[in-house]
Amino acid sequence: MSPDSDTTCLGVRVRGIVQGVGFRPFVYRLAADTGLSGWVRNTSDGVQIEVEGPRRSTGLFLRKLREAAPPLSHIDEVTTEECPPRGFARFEIRESLFEEGKSQLVSPDIATCPACLEELLDATDRRHQYPFTNCTNCGPRFTIITDMPYDRSKTTMRSFAMCPECQAEYDDPLDRRFHAQPNACPVCGPSLSLLDAHGATVECADPLAQTSTLLKKGAIVAIKGLGGFLLACDATSPQAVRLLRERKQRPAKPFAIMVPDLEVAAQHCDVSEQESSLLASPAAPIVLARWKDSSSICHEVAPSLLYLGLMLPYTPLHHVLLRHCEMPLVMTSGNLSEEPIAAGNEEALRRLADIADYFLMHNRPIHSRYDDSVAMVVDGTVQMLRRARGYAPNPVALPFEAPRILATGAQTKNTFCLTRGHHAFVSQHIGDLDSVETLDHFEATILLYTKLFRAEPELVAHDLHPDYLSTRYAQDMSQRGLRTCAVQHHHAHIAACMVENGVTEPVIGVAFDGAGLGADGHIWGGEFLVCDFAAFRRVGRIEYLPLAGGDAATLRPYRTAVGYIMTLFGNGGLDRSPFLLGQLAEGEGDIIARQVGSGLNAPLCSSMGRLFDAVAAIAGLRHRIAYEGQAAVELEMAAHRHGGPAPTGRYAFQVDKTDGTYVLGVAPLLSAVLDDIHAGQPASLVAAAFHEAVAQMTADMCSRIAADSGIRTVALSGGIFQNRLLLHRVRALLGEAGLNVLLHTTLPSNDGCVSLGQAVVAAHAT
Prior knowledge:
Elements: E1 7-17, H1 23-33, E2 37-43, E3 46-54, H2 55-67, E4 74-83, E5 91-93, H3 114-121, H4 164-171, E6 192-196, H5 207-216, E7 221-224, E8 229-234, H6 238-248, E9 256-258, H7 262-268, E10 269-270, H8 273-279, E11 286-291, E12 307-311, H9 316-325, E13 329-333, H10 345-352, E14 358-362, E15 374-378, E16 381-386, E17 396-402, E18 405-407, E19 417-426, H11 436-452, E20 459-463, H12 469-478, E21 483-487, H13 489-500, E22 507-517, E23 523-531, E24 536-542, E25 545-546, H14 551-555, H15 557-569, H16 578-581, H17 588-598, E26 604-605, H18 608-618, H19 630-641, E27 654-658, E28 661-665, H20 667-678, H21 683-709, E29 713-717, H22 724-736, E30 740-742, H23 754-765
Parallel strand pairs: 2-5, 7-14, 9-12, 11-15, 18-20, 20-21, 22-29, 24-28, 29-30
Antiparallel strand pairs: 1-3, 1-4, 2-3, 6-14, 7-8, 8-13, 9-13, 10-11, 11-12, 15-16, 17-19, 18-19, 22-23, 23-24, 25-26, 27-28
């Protein structure tokens, strides 16, 4: 193009999720459509463009750049500057540019797109039933990236040389596979193999078809997916599911189910329109939906629960397998209980040989472990329960510019957070830091994020609890000269909720969970705070009660209940509790009495989670737990089973004010619960009345605090707010009281959000 008076040249920088999502071919086509010349390339912090042509055309180009961007992209910023006309002859896509110290956002892994699914199911297509079909609109991203910019040489696909047909697609800017880094086909791409539990190859013409046959016969198969291995079995077979539970050492925690499509999902669950959209979204999370009584999925999949975790196939491998099997499959993380998901082939054979009968493997390495995400819909709002595949590592936007902070998160449901500028990169779900394997996963993922986002920390934030492994990790970093900042657990919860909602003004924070070390050295978990990012003031709480045996009470809710009853009503209070008396071993009641009387091994606790445990035990629903939160979950399920509206006013809290702090006494509530159980009232009525009492109490406390402080915004956080019944009632009652309610929507309300809150508080404490 020859420059003339109307010709202008613009230098354009685009930042956001603009690599691995078809952005450069989109720019190429847009330039062609608007008659412009120039070039586009990936850089270490985004996409760089120069376009030249008539001023009117460049203006149209800039407008369409935002309006018509690819569906999986997310533009954070577009900057432009005028350049001298260059006289470009055409528009081209240039090689990527590495820029020292700069970082670029990374796309999460994305479920199979409709175009690739159509090819997968087309018997005439060269990718028919090929389990690694992908394009720029779908497929692996985060799990295969080793560094940025996002080029094939910096992914685990670098060892697979493309065949001429795939290379032609990759090189054609008008093809949807243009620069699709995982591009492959049966000729040149990854392949499957089927092995037995001893690692010997199972000779067969079609490993996927043979896997289907094995699953139909009741086998347990470890299947390598995007971010690690999943353990699969027939979800309609009680024998297969019981065997998986026994081998996996997971006696009761629910399993997730994969079904081929929304039509089959509706056969097993009442799936709302919003839940359907979530299941079929590019993120394709597990979605908790109401389980139908008519479902053929066996009770053993989710004992005592009314909601089932459903997901649709999100890789071509899953699509083909589910069509072969023609039955719903359990798809649960490939690990022993509470260990990280197995990712490598040799690792899986070593760690899962005592669980799986067979292994369906592939030879594309996984660079980062990645669990499935879990979500639910409550009153039209999506609530994340576990954030990983499909969502991480998308950043949370910060309403301020942060220094480079590493926040190490909590002990359970751990995530960590790295901040840089206006971005907070919250990791995928890491898990409970209770094993060497999980700690190794935690440390390796921190190194990966630090490398990908060029965010070497200058400050490390951590929990107050000195025994959390995440705290110890932070303290170890302080030995290397890094500054550290301790952040109270529940302040972090509320700060995270504020950031998700873009709120910077002070709020009333309601933090309900199992446990978090308080500023006074006691165990908190039923807290009402007035706080902003920099500081908090505790203005309300549940009264302190002793946990008889400490962690033993957490694992055995009957001990929590017995300790509470003895403290509030004396030893004779147990005479009103037939279920608890039947749980006590000989002499155990005397031991608990001595513990709560002396305070020895009976830490004081204000936890809402432990109160749920105590009521569940008194009601005879759950005396010992097999997974965290089991008693509270089963108490919620009992409340859902109650016929008719929840009883209002049947149970009540006592509210006192001491030294400016509202203290909620639980004696009236527990006394009424004991009376109902002693009188033979059903557990469902007790559970429903308890939920209503907690909701009414929460609204009453927030109204009192709002009147005292003038603050009209309430932020709800903590694992207890994963209870859909309680969340629904609290949100409704607060709205009726004229208060604005903030909820988590990007991160879970459980401890998965704590790292974000730690980072935010630490940024304002320096």
